[in-house]
Amino acid sequence: MPLVDHHYIDRVLPARKPIDSAGQNHSLLDRARHLLPKEKLLIELAFKNQLSHRQIAQILQAPAGTISRRLQRICRKLRDPMILSLMDDACALSEEHRTLALEHFLHRRPVAELAKIHQLSDREISRMLDYVRGWFGRISHARHRSARS
Asked: pTM score, two decimals?
């Protein structure tokens, strides 16, 4: 019996697709382009090729439970409102802020590692990430106010 059935997919991937600020639909597979290659492979095997967790586990030589947990974690990240806002092509942030924020919030890279990669100080990286947090707070507050109207 496959570990992935339609009820599971319905819980993980809602029937209605998230709509970004430009009004475009983005499916899980579209958002997967921002993932690391290993995570993207899991999403494609599970949702594009519609393989069960057990089949993916055999291909990747990993326990089926591990595959299930990884897919749940990836799907949870891809539904996060901040990450969805950062993935939006109409995002009002500079490309540098957006890239740093995706690396930090989506890929979980620590500030020290980002500082080495981008040749900036830890303090500069922290300020940029604080700016992104503030930006997201402002847009989510504005969305909340417009939804109440």
From this structure: 0.72
